[in-house]
Known about the structure:
- By secondary structure, the chain is an alpha/beta fold.
- Helix content is 43%, strand content 14%.
- Helix 1 packs across helix 3.
Amino acid sequence: MATIYDVSFLAGVSLATVSRVVNNTGKVSEKTRQKVHDAMAQLDYRPNTIAQSLASNRSNSVGVLVSQLDGPFYGPMMREVESALRAANKHVIIAAGHSDAAQEKEAVEFLLSRGCDALIVDAEILSNEYLQELCRGKTPVVLINRHVDGIEERCVHLNNLQGGLLASRHVLAHGHSRIAYISGPLFKLDARERLEGHKQALAEKGLEFDDALFFEGDFREEGGFEGMAALLERGVPFSAVVCANDQMASGAIALCLERGLRVPEDISFVGFDNIPFPRYISPKLTTVCNPIQDMGRMAANWVLKEVYDNSEVSFHHRFEPELVVRESVQSPSAT
């Protein structure tokens, strides 16, 4: 098995130079760097990562906690996190919390036990107090998709209330006054904030929130399908539906099509998140852009800046939503 000494001899450089190339630290000319890489390839040399970690007190790995591993929302976020960290020669260890407090806590403890240099945490259920305590620990932590008082500088999040306002204001601006709302599960902060934005938009127009036009969904297509069925079965008239995410909007639209209802001629729809597939359905879904990819990149940038001393990356905490107007909303009187 080849050693760092063999690489040094074959490349004709010092051990220190080989170490700088392997660890991507210090200044090394491109010509010398290539000589070292060529020698490593010729010898099939693999750096001893355990020894590197002991020597540098770094594992060059970052733990990431996400709510779930499936679905169209978290994939783009994880791609950006992994891409930004891999470009800096860091690796990602992923754990899922499955929207359960015990599993989220277990996942955090697992990532800490792996000696990660930092954690990127998307925790839906863990209490603010737990997260505040976690951020006081030795391992640097940045929260994504979450705002916690007292540790704002560790949070990368969306203004969800403003997003809820944008979605419902758009429907109201088209003349709708009987507006149904399918929310996400209300134990999730983002679902509550988006609902609050909807209620504020109604209040701006002097309209009251009607419980008969509300359904608590689950952020999945099935929840939107079931929610739309429940709303129709209540027999309370409405001309538009605001959904707390695009997946539920897609499920609700599917139910309408099954029942022979036209979108937007009979019922208008607005979603939230701007995930890829709703732009390809018919009609194309009007939605609110949730820049989760940008937030993922920003969380990775925080780690690179605060943990690995990379001063070249940019960082900011709060993202503002934008309305994406497509084809799923029209005035209730339009034909």
